[in-house]
């Protein structure tokens, strides 16, 4: 049986559930904003603990990553991500979740072939792209703006 593209498109539209776009955007905004507010609260906390600005920012990021990894381990972050969508994906916590989730999923295959090999299956390309982009950016700046050296 051959199906045209239009017929296939119609079948997909009928089989796909409609997404409540406004509600999904609201959830993403509230949860993503809540994560960012938590980061600001942590920053204020560390500033009140007499950390200098750069150290307070670092500690806030480390705490958010640690909480994300912990909540991923408990299975709570995945449930929140199903509801909030991109709201949990965009902040730094989404990156931590992307590292911890595959590591937990493949831990039964062992520390090397499971956790070690699969840990960066999602986050690895992001890390590689970030490092390469920063190298290219640095080289371009080195040659374009030589007076900054």
Write the layout of secondary structure elements.
Elements: H1 5-15, H2 21-48, H3 53-74, H4 76-84, H5 86-89, H6 92-105, H7 111-118, H8 124-144
Helix pairs in contact: 2-3, 3-6, 6-7
Question: What's the tally of helices?
Answer: 8
Beta strands, count: 0
Low-confidence stretches: none
Q: For the terminal residues, how far apart are their CA atoms?
A: 67 Å
| Shape field | extended
Helical content (DSSP H or I, runs of 4+) = over 70%
Assembly type of the chains comes to single chain
Task: Compute the average pLDDT.
Answer: 86
Strand/helix succession? HHHHHHHH
Strand content: under 5%
Question: How big is the Rg?
Answer: 21 Å
- Specify the biggest β-sheet: none
Task: Please give the domain count.
Answer: 1
Supply the key terms.
single chain, 149 residues, mainly alpha, 8 helices, extended
């Amino acid at each position: 049986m051959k199906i045209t593209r239009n017929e296939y498109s119609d079948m997909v539209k009928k089989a796909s559930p409609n997404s409540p776009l406004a509600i999904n955007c609201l959830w993403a905004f509230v949860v993503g904003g809540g994560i960012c507010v938590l980061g600001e609260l942590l920053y204020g906390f560390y500033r009140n603990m007499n950390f200098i600005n750069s150290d307070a920012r670092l500690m806030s990021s480390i705490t958010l990553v640690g909480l994300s990894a912990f909540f991923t381990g408990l299975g709570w972050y995945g449930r929140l991500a199903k509801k909030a969508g991109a709201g949990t994906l965009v902040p730094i916590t989404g990156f931590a979740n992307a590292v911890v989730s595959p590591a937990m999923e493949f831990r039964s295959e062992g520390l090397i072939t499971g956790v070690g090999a699969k840990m960066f299956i999602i986050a690895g390309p992001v890390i590689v792209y970030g490092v390469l982009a920063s190298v290219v950016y640095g080289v371009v700046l080195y040659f374009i703006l030589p007076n900054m050296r």
